């Protein structure tokens, strides 16, 4: 098997709200859209971001047992460079930081935001842990 791309499909109540959040604040572009559906991507020339498909909760394209589920209990994590600058930029754009910038003892430097549908987006930059 050869994986040629990665996509995460998120079932949300308001596709337009998540679409706006990811395109306005996180650099995604619309690849395709329709009633209750949007496919978002980022330019892959300089990053490895996962593509995102947004599906309206209840949409009939989903199997019946999945139609009422929502994107809950998951964290969409992006490993980035320039973490502190990214946090400053998002704050300046009015995005609420739902978990403040912090550094874990194992070298994970991170913060979180939450999109209008409750999708948690975490930004991570790895540092060398201080083992002194």
Automatic annotation (TrEMBL):
Name this protein carries in UniProt? VOC family protein
InterPro entries found in the cross-reference section: Glyas_Bleomycin-R_OHBP_Dase, Glyas_Fos-R_dOase_dom, VOC_core
Q: Which Pfam families match?
A: Glyoxalase (PF00903)
Among Gene3D superfamilies, the record links this protein to: 2,3-Dihydroxybiphenyl 1,2-Dioxygenase, domain 1
**Transmembrane spans:** none
| UniProt domain VOC: residue ranges | 4-126
